[in-house]
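Dear V.,

Thank you for sending over the compound details. I've combined the ligand you provided, zinc ion, with the protein sequence from our construct and run the structure prediction for the complex. I'm sharing the raw inputs here so there's no ambiguity about protonation or stereochemistry in the SMILES, which I know was a concern on your side last time.
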Amino acid sequence: MRLRLFARCARDDREQMTDDRRPSASPSRLAAYCRLSTVDCRLFSLPLVLLLALLSGCARRPFHNLPEALGLPPGTERVLTETQVTLRGGGHTFTFDRGKRTATLDGARYYLHEPATMNALGAKDSALIRQAIVRPTPPPARATILLDPGHGASDTGCRVGKTHEKNITLAVALEVKRLLEAQGHRVLMTRAADGPQRSLEERAQMGAANAIDAFVSIHVNSAANAEARGIEVYTLPAPGCDGTAANSPARAPMVGQAHLPAATRLAFCVQQALLTMEAPAPADRGLRHAHFKVLRDTPAPAILIEMGFLTNAQDFPLLAEAAGQQRLAVAIARGLNTAFTP
Ligand SMILES: [Zn+2]
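Below is the predicted structure of the protein with zinc ion bound, written out as structure tokens.
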């Protein structure tokens, strides 16, 4: 709390100096802007205040206070080992790996926006987990959802033999549409046939041009390593944070980041539904973060689903065969419907 007060103190001071074109601000003026006592501000030199302001951007939630920070109920069980912190309460089980970027939230892998330290979780992750998983904002019961089957027309996406990603994403999306409409939701599509060929910009623009509650882009993965398998569900990284991949540095703020709690809710619900498909359920590669164009530029909660690896022998039937596509569609529709269940 004190850090936050001083962050505001330093920021207000800089703004005031610019506005008034004054070379410096006296401690008493700082106190006036900060609504702090004069004594408080005199204790800190301006460089120290600026340092504290910088540190406040990296605020963390200590593990001993984490249940409260996450909105978990009093009496939540907390188990600390050398390598992990596990919380059990309110119907949730969360495990955070100390000093790492990995966590397990209700059985599903989650990549943190900022690595946990040995003693604390980043404030951005703490807030998102609270807002998306523990205490989500009640959604509209009847949602308008824009489905985006990846690729199309001459853009085949990844392919193995005559099996093209563009056909898989369309088949799954059409079935998701049918299932969601049966639940009373309104569903739009960026394409409902092989074409038209749409750029990523056009897809995001369709999200901007319609009043939608969710944008769901559906894709299939591929890799040179034939062992790579499993699902990935993506949201944007939190403001100022790197993406999950190693070569994904933080970028300037983007429109989609305003909807990150709701997007995280969507991603979490879809990931849970995919992982609880009837056996054989896919492997879990985690809820990840990336600066994908369609996520960046869509002014609504937006997620991107990678349903598996076409290049993996175990994932291939799930993706390429009609029965597998049906299973994927049922799971994705179930996840989305859960996210829109108040
Ligand atoms: Zn794709």
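A first observation: DSSP finds twelve helices and 15 strands in the chain.

Warm regards,
I. M.
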